[in-house]
Amino acid sequence: MSKSTVFCLIVEVFRIQGGARLVGEVHVTGAKNSSLKLMAAALLAPGVTTIHAVPNILDVTIMAELLRRLGCTVNYSAVSETVTIDVPETIEHRADYDLVRRMRASIAVLGPLVARTGAADVALPGGDAIGSRGLDMHTAGLERMGATVTNEHGYLVVHAPDGGLVGTHVYLDFPSVGATETLLMAAVTASGQTIIDNAAREPEIVDICNMLVSMGGQISGIGTSLLTISGVSALRATEYTTVSDRIVAGTWAVAAVITRGDVTVHNANPEHLSIVLEKLTTVGANVEITGDGFRVQMDRRPTAVDIVTLPYPGFPTDLQPQFIALNSIAEGSAMVTENLFEARFRFVQELSRLGAEVRTDGHHALIRGRSQLSGAPVEATDIRAGAGLVLAGLVSDGETVVHAIEHIDRGYVDFETQLATLGANIVREASPELA
Ligand code: EPU
């Protein structure tokens, strides 16, 4: 008989005792999904670019390391949440697999590298726990601007024509956030005019447009699905503050409702969450707009609510798991339709461990609300699934232990500390795990 060896790893988990009502105030930092792209955009101009409201999360560390390998000097202060990026006159053009595989947002360097150096070798980020996540719209757009794109040994190898990228009319099949960002950053110094038709309109897209404008870029139609970029010969370094994180703000809003609490969210833009706050009103919450955010109060069991995820201004896919958690303890049944990431229902299996009644069929999930969930060990499968499981744990009877919280740490700064400040019974602790 062969002997097998069992290794024991020490990992961190969240241990939650359900039942607390969340009451108090929270402050939202800058958006992860904007900060990372703004850091990549700094590559477009030599000199020192300073970006404020950059959250202290692992992905920022990974992006900083990627920029260092490209030749930049990067300093991040967790205290002031400010990053300074000193970009040299000449930068490298290779983004290595060891970093890119850890964070899909690394693809954000693709556009700036081709624009600045005329070439890019960027490791293919590959699949993700939430779906296949293609890059075809990024590459097709670059090809329309005159670039050649090949896939060599796991790397996307892109070359701009002699004389640089050329402005053109690009029609996106789908308003992809990533493709819109790549093409914006590629077009801003291309010769002539580029039109991105069916562009994404997320607040994070508006943010990167505004930063590019502050660097000297010429962009019109910001916030609409038709972006017109008039190429300029060079950009200059800038100082910029990241837009606040609407997904984190939305997560706090759901936390208030699911625990029948009363939470005031500061540094949040309610306009970025119009449809989400409207849905929370439908489930029975009282939502009040404040000077720098909003307050959400709930005093009864929520009523189930249907949601359909869509590109902005539709309902954000990044709040879908949190709403499934909410529906799982609501009165009645709800249908949740996921239109962006086919594997985002993977976490439903974990939610079922808490007793939630969810049936999925393709991109639909039917949730029958139960009056009470029951605490159990569960595992986060991605950032937002992790947030959804924590919220469910807060309203489960007894103890819930959430594993794989490194996913949650990628999107939520000091999540458990902030939850505990609001009254949640949650601790982070080291836990031995078999490997
Ligand atoms: N798609 C393609 N081809 C492309 C580009 C996209 O098929 O060339 C598909 C994707 O496979 C997906 C859909 O289009 O099915 C949407 O993708 P999109 O490009 O809009 O998303 P992304 O840029 O990959 C960003 C956020 C996600 C967020 C989505 C949608 C970052 C780093 N990620 O992803 O955030 O869900 O936009 O809003 O900005 C998260 O924060 O947890 C997260 C996953």
Structure notes:
- With 435 residues, the protein is of the alpha/beta class.
- The protein folds into two domains: 9-28 and 244-434, Alpha-beta prism (UDP-n-acetylglucosamine1-carboxyvinyl-transferase, Chain), CATH 3.65.10; 32-241, Alpha-beta prism (UDP-n-acetylglucosamine1-carboxyvinyl-transferase, Chain).
- The chain has helices at 32-41, 58-69, 97-100, 110-117, 136-144, 177-187, 203-214, 246-258, 274-282, 320-328, 348-352, 383-394, 406-409, 415-421, and strands spanning 8-17, 23-27, 47-52, 73-77, 82-87, 94-95, 119-123, 148-152, 155-159, 169-171, 193-197, 218-220, 226-230, 239-241, 262-266, 286-290, 293-297, 307-308, 333-337, 357-361, 364-368, 373-374, 377-379, 396-397, 399-403, 425-434.
- Helix 10 links the parallel strand 18 and strand 19 (333-337).
- The longest helix has 13 residues, at 246-258.
- It is globular and about 65 Å long.
- The model has no long low-confidence stretch (mean pLDDT 95).
- Its EC number is 2.5.1.7.
- Pfam families: EPSP_synthase (PF00275).
- One of its GO terms (molecular function) is UDP-N-acetylglucosamine 1-carboxyvinyltransferase activity.
